[in-house]
Each structure stands twice: as structure tokens, then as C-alpha cells.
Amino acid sequence: MRLTRAGEYAIRCVLYLATNRDRKVIGRKEIAEAMDIPAQFLGKVAQNLARAGIIAIRQGAHGGYELISRPEDLSLLTVVEAIDGEIFLNDCVHRPESCDRSALCAVHRIWDKARTQLRGTLDGISLASLAACESKQPGKRSE
Length: 143
Description:
By secondary structure, the protein is mostly helical. The chain has helices at residues 5-19, 28-35, 39-51, 76-84, 91-94, 106-123, 127-135; strands spanning 55-58, 64-67. It has a two-stranded antiparallel sheet with strand order 1-2. A hairpin with a 5-residue loop joins strand 1 (55-58) and strand 2. Helix 1 crosses helix 3 (39-51) and helix 1 crosses helix 4. The longest helix is centred in the last third of the chain and has 18 residues, at 106-123. 24% of the residues are buried.
């Protein structure tokens, strides 16, 4: 499993919103510049985040993105899977019927265990905890 560029940008976007949660709506351009995300790409990523119920897209002169999920309730797994889909390390874990050996294969069980552990790790990390770490970083710009 490899995190896509879209998944990475989604994490950056949501992290910026969580770090600046005292502000209700933040413009796309500001997020793109602060988090080094191409603005056009951010627009596409934001649409997927909005469909997943993580952010809202506000139109108009003072529009932008609003985090609608509480950072305490939002896991890194939720953000990643909103963009990249459910994490599977191997096709045989995702679709056991695709492999005639799934029921017998010792490696299949390892892929399944690794998938479970990875998903558990990502699910155990909230955006609130990441935002807290982010705000403590030396050299952080004050927005």
C-alpha cells in the first residue's frame, strides 16, 4: 500500500484546518500556500473530503473550507480512506476469491494481519493529536 499524492494532500488540508480550528472557514489559496499543495489539486481533493463528510466547501467571496468533523473524532485512517479507499495490502485480502490459495496460504494470513495492524494504527491517531504536534513544531508560521 502506498499513500497517493491526493491522500497526502488531504491529510495536509485537514491538518491545517484542525490546527486553525479557531477560524471557521479558511480559503483554498491560503491552505494551498501554507501546506504546499497545488491549488487546483486541492480543489479536487476537497471535493472528496466533502463527500466523505469531513469538510464543507463554502462558496462566495469569503468562501473556503470548513472542518465539520471534530478533530478529536477524526482519525488519520478516515482521511486516508476518504481519498484512497479502504486499505488493502494485497488483492487476495481484498478479494479472497481472486486467489485459489487464500484459504491455504500462510502469506495471506500475514497480509491480513499487517492490514489490520496498519488500519488500527492509523485509526488510533486523531487529527486533534496531530494538530497539537504540528502547532509545537519549531518555525511554525503563525497564520
